[in-house]
Design goal:
The structure is a homodimer of 420-residue chains. Chain A is α/β, with parallel strands linked by helices and 420 residues long. Chain A has helices at 4-13, 44-58, 63-66, 72-83, 97-115, 130-143, 156-161, 183-192, 242-245, 284-298, 305-328, 356-365, 389-404, and strands at 30-31, 91-94, 121-125, 146-150, 165-171, 196-200, 219-222, 236-240, 334-335, 347-351, 368-369, 371-373, 377-381. The interface between A and B is large, with 92 and 92 residues.
Chain lengths: 420, 420
């Protein structure tokens, strides 16, 4: 049996422990929801205040030049690129994940239509994050493609092999179960089938090592406000492999993606490379906050970078799974996150026949913040930048107590909020 | 001849003078570029800090409920609606103007394809803001429509009368000349021709009275960072007349526009009304700042609202035009902004055969901030919320001096910056 003292020892030996100091951790909380909204970095409030008071308030439009606002989408994109195996100049931070997905999926469909006109399917998983499916559904309907959804990750290879899939669109880590796809293997299977591989990195960027270029991805998007700690609704990012980036316009052909935005040319002339995936004026306040968040992940580079973060993440989730089994084993919690490391992201999810929503609420009331995903999933995210092994112990103790005591049956934990 | 004393008297009598106190005006500057980026409201830094430190930093994901983040796009949309003659529930603040234009133009094209399948043209002006033209060009290409551009506003009626225009897409106030369209008359002509009228209010929302519903608009978008003072890259807004709002999905069918975003339903079911024009997670920091900006315009409501702001705006631009004529008349400045009130927005633009860029730079060096628009336009925006009549006098004195002295010929004013 594990003990709390062993957890404290792990914390004492943790080479990444110092990174925790970079965050304003909420008092009295064990925050296991960094996969939904990352914690506030200490550097962010001052940086946002600087953008507001100095760059906007004092220098106003001059800041497009003097504060390099015009380069910020690229600068932040270059930083995120380092975390996901992309080269400088290949990525920009902009818009939302949904909007970026629309850009790359429509570009992928256009390319497929030209290179492989017989292929008219977009393949994804039924359990993919809904916004991805909605965007794909809308594009498929508009362009006469068929959106095909498989129920299980294991069916992807078989479906690809049928040969009519234009674009494979997957979220690398499933938002509900935390299951991780092998990007290299899946992209290889896609390539072999003449299919373009589009990856949503919402739950992988900043959470585990990603190597877009080496692992054969064609397109990628991802989220700024989860493991990148960019703040609520932070801009997302978009990446296109250089072999595709200049082939087509994406249809959101806004002025920031023009080759010369301030020439005010009435005809669209796309910027070289990934810059053509910019559209309108970037939300500067949110983008500046995103940069601070990305910097917290880059701060791990001298300490071993994403590999070290991944090792700690797996140790945290291993511990959580083991402790729940040890201490809450009799309460009917089914771990729906794979136990195999190669198949696990940075979260652990449990399903339960009854009470999942209320159990999460009872935990939140005690300061242990996870979240609920319909119909029956309790989701716990583990951000190795700021979580300790002792936090895992304490969280499981609360979970055990909520279950042993039956506290979750209290009606106040069953009231549904607007956002769950 | 006008005197500075007369300008000071106008300021002393100005019923809107107190609104200036709501802004952090940059020291030593006369800011005539609120049509590019509005000035920082005094309330904004504290509000943004509250969102960062309290709502994000302390309450984290709970703020979706406790701070009503989930309702913010609608709440800000409702406030903007009051400024442009739309009803509560008809508008949301989200994304960029470019992205919103894509949403409404594609919806308009879909509706036109159903109601008037013979009409395959999108009509606009060659001088429309480029991002609008780029988006229209991309959509026209994708869907087999033709984008037709007229060179002069006077040609619109004639071109509409040809009968094959599906959508008329105009920016109400021209970004370069400041020319104002008569929304009621133009929308009426469009309606008579069986054409949908789509308006970009980038330079009119917060600058002059707009009445979308009364004046027959079908769709509208607009910008949050100009006269609404929302901050750099503030979210934009989107409005669809209720008669169209529920007819179709817009293709950016993201999860925030779903009828039940947190049900995580794999099939898209659009939200009722304008909420289906939301897409991804909103950039909360930028959206909170936008609300503060909109509040500065709403603060004029007890003082006469948009009608009073419009009266002052016209008085300011009248004065500016008259003073430039009186005091700089010999320097070859051509006022390209209409002198007729009904045709003028809230800016004044001059063209000059030589040196427009350098003259603007020389003025900026003196603290008089206007901007340059290629190839030869000096642009001066007048925000009645914070500009004084004496500012107009002083700005013209600087302009006179830059011209009389030939200071603008100094080579340092000819160096081009990345953003002009």
């Amino acid at each position: 049996m594990t003990t709390r003292e062993e957890c404290l020892s792990l914390d004492a030996e943790d080479p990444l422990a110092s990174l925790r100091d970079r965050f304003e951790l909420p008092a009295g909380k064990i925050y296991l929801d960094g996969n939904s909204l990352g914690v506030l970095p200490k550097a962010t409030p001052a940086r946002v205040a600087e953008v507001v008071r100095l760059e906007w308030g004092e220098h106003l439009i001059e800041s497009w030049n003097t504060a390099s606002w015009i380069e910020l989408p690229q600068r932040v994109g270059d930083k995120i690129a380092r975390l996901v195996g992309a080269a400088p100049g290949e990525m920009v931070a902009a818009d939302s994940t949904s909007v970026n997905l629309f850009k790359v999926l429509s570009a992928a469909m256009t390319i497929a239509r030209e290179d492989a006109p017989g292929k008219r399917c977009i393949l994804s998983e039924r359990g993919n994050f809904p916004t991805d499916l909605y965007i794909a559904e809308a594009l498929a309907r508009e362009r006469g493609f068929e959106l095909v959804l498989v129920g299980a990750a294991e069916d992807i290879g078989h479906r690809l092999a049928q040969g009519n899939v234009a674009v494979l669109m997957l979220t690398q880590v499933d938002f509900k179960s935390g299951r991780l796809h092998d990007m290299a293997a899946v992209s290889r299977a896609a390539r072999a089938a003449g299919t373009l591989a589009l990856w949503d990195l919402a739950h992988s960027a900043g959470a585990l090592p990603v190597n877009l270029d080496r692992d054969g991805a064609d397109f990628a998007v991802g989220c700024g406000y989860k493991y990148l700690n960019g703040g609520p609704g932070a801009p997302a990012f978009v990446w296109v492999h250089p072999r595709h980036a200049e082939r087509f316009w994406q249809p959101l052909a806004g002025w920031m993606g023009h080759a010369a935005p301030f020439a005010f040319d009435p005809a669209y002339r796309p910027a070289p490379g990934i810059a053509r995936y910019l559209c309108g004026t970037p939300a500067l306040l949110s983008l500046a906050a995103l940069e601070c968040g990305v910097d917290t992940v880059l701060a791990a580079e001298p300490l071993g970078g994403m590999a070290a973060l991944r090792a700690k993440s797996l140790a945290l989730t291993d511990l959580f799974i083991a402790l729940v089994q040890e201490r809450c084993g009799s309460h009917g919690l089914e771990c729906i996150t794979p136990s195999e490391h190669a198949l696990r992201g940075s979260q652990v999810s449990f399903a339960r026949a009854e009470g999942s929503y209320a159990i999460v609420q009872a935990l939140i009331a005690r300061g242990v913040v996870g979240d609920f995903r319909a119909p029956d999933v309790m989701r716990f995210g583990f951000t190795p930048l700021y979580l300790r092994f002792a936090d895992v112990w304490d969280a499981v103790e609360h979970l055990r107590d909520v279950l042993d005591s039956g506290q979750w049956r209290d009606p106040r934990f069953h009231r549904q909020a607007a956002v769950t």
